[in-house]
From TrEMBL:
Residues 122-215 form the Rhodanese domain. PROSITE patterns: RHODANESE_3. It comes from the Bacteria. PANTHER family: RHODANESE-LIKE DOMAIN-CONTAINING PROTEIN 7-RELATED, THIOSULFATE SULFURTRANSFERASE/RHODANESE-LIKE DOMAIN-CONTAINING PROTEIN 2. This is tRNA uridine(34) hydroxylase. It comes from Spirosoma sordidisoli. Keywords: Oxidoreductase, Transferase, tRNA processing. Transmembrane segments: none annotated. InterPro entries: Rhodanese-like_dom, Rhodanese-like_dom_sf, Rhodanese_C, TrhO, TRHO_N. The gene is trhO. The keyword Nucleus does not apply. One of its GO terms (molecular function) is transferase activity.
Amino acid sequence: MKPYRVLLYYIYSPIENPDQYRDEHHRLCLRLNLLGRVIVAPEGLNGTVSGLTADCEAYKAALHADPRFADIEFKVDEADGHTFQKLHVRVKPEIVHSDLPVDPRRQTGIHLEPEEFQQLKNDPDVVLVDMRSNYEHAVGRFRGAVTFDMENLRELPEHVHEIEHLKDKKIITYCTGGIKCEKASAYLLSQGFQNVYQLHGGIIKYGMEAGGTDFDGQCYVFDNRVTVDVNHVNPTTVSVCYRCGTPTSRMINCASPACNNHVTLCESCGDEHGGTCTDACKTDPELRPYDGTGYYGKQSVGYTPAQGYISRRGQKIDLSAPRLVAASTDTPSV
C-alpha cells in the first residue's frame, strides 16, 4: 500500500460567507500538510488534494463533521508522494466554471452508480455523452461515446445542436469526477431532453468500483500524474503520438511555455524533441528543460504552502489555535 492518498471531491451546498470559509479551509489544509487545489464558492466546495494517509483521513473527518459537507463523497486513490507541488484555496463564483443558467440542487440528471451505468451503457437506446474538454477525451473516453470539440463547459450551449436528434434516447453524461455532469445534465433537461442520466462519481469512481470496463485509453487528471489508468478489464489505447502517430496514452504539456499545449507524445519523440509538440516550439527562448514527465509546475521564489494565505491576509498563522494571531513581520512558522 502506498503512503499517500489523493482525494477528489465536490459538493453543491450553500456557503454563506465564502471568503471567511476559504481562510478556515486553507488553515485546515496547512495543519494537515495537504497540497492541492480547492475552490470555495457560494454554491459549494470542489477540491483535489494529496497528503499522507492519516492526514487525508483527518481531512475527510473534518469536512464530514461540518453539516454543510456531511454528504461529501470522496474518491480516494493511492500515490507514492504528493501529486501537487502547491496549495491553492480560492474563492470563485462557481465550483466548476460553466456560466450555465442552472442549479443542480433543484434539477439534475438521474444519478447512476457505477454498476448501474455498466449494465445500462450498452443498451441500444442509450447514448453516452462526454462532458469534458477536447484534450481530455482525446486521451481516453468511453467506447462509442459522443464527444464535443470544446475547450471548457462554458461552450456546451454551442454544441447541444449536435445531439438534438437524440432527444428520444436515454442520454448518460459523464466526466472525470461527476461535478461537470451535475450542471451539464441539468442544462440538457432545460433544453428539452427528457431522459437524462449521469455517471455518479464520474470515470474515476467507475474505475474504482466497476473495473473501468470499456473506458478506452487513460483518464486525464489535473495534477502531476496528468493521466491515470481506470480500465483494469479490457484496456486499450485510443490516442496517438502528436508527432509520429504511434499509439500512446502518454500526455504532456509542450515544453514551450508560449505553446503549453496538452498533447500525447510517445517517449521516443519526447526525448528526441525535448518535450515539444512542433519544431517551431523548439525555438522558444523560454523553453523549459524536459525531464521526461512533461509536467511543469509554476515556479515561484520562496514559495511555501502557507504563502497563499500570508499574501492574502498579511497575517501570521498559528496552526495550534482555531483563530489567527496578530499580524507580524516575522517569517511565518508552519
